[in-house]
Amino acid sequence: FAWLRHFKKSMEIPTPIYNHVSNYDVYEPAEDTFLLLDALEKEQDYLKALRPTIALEVGCGSGVVSAFLATILGDSTAYFCTDRNQSAASCCVETSAANHVTINPVLTDLSTSFLPRFEHSVDVLIFNPPYVVTPPHEVEVNGITASWAGGVDGRQVMNRFFKQVPNLLSNRGVLYLVVIRENKPDEIREIFNEMGFLCEVVMTRRSGPEFLMILKFVRK
User: Fold this and answer.
1) Distance (Å, whole) CA 98 – CA 173
2) Is the pTM of this model over 0.85?
3) What is the CATH architecture of 2-219?
């Protein structure tokens, strides 16, 4: 009944228009996407009080999450997103136009192109990573498989990204991360604890066999 939840939610912050997404070779919005939207809506007062200057979504796919965030925060924030898929960048441009927001897609691996230029400058960082546990070699496959194949523990892509977070986030910055139980969230919490971050579970939801979680990280 995800559609019913989002019909109700649309009375407050509308779900972004994304009927064009099927025209692109990208990960289409699914239950993990909608859980992330719900979490951002829940966090909207916190995010507005943060008064972010720069927001960055890593692995943007359709661009729906960035469009939703831009609807919450308005024009005072600069919105960037990354993907290694050209089709995702093109889709994000159309999503941006369809929802009357401005999002700047960049073709890059994770956030590599933003360092060191955006070092300690990102106030809102979002990542819905490839988290499905798969054989390690599937992580290197191009195309739509790259949007969900996470390799060992579903963490091969995540673990590379974690190393970039301390250099990206501003002192007041926040990271929202989508994980499932198989990703060993307690281990993730400890990794970030050792890097100087606090962890909070913002929202959870079961979707078929998956138990989804949105983790929030801020500096201690």
Assistant:
1) 28
2) yes
3) 3-Layer(aba) Sandwich (3.40)
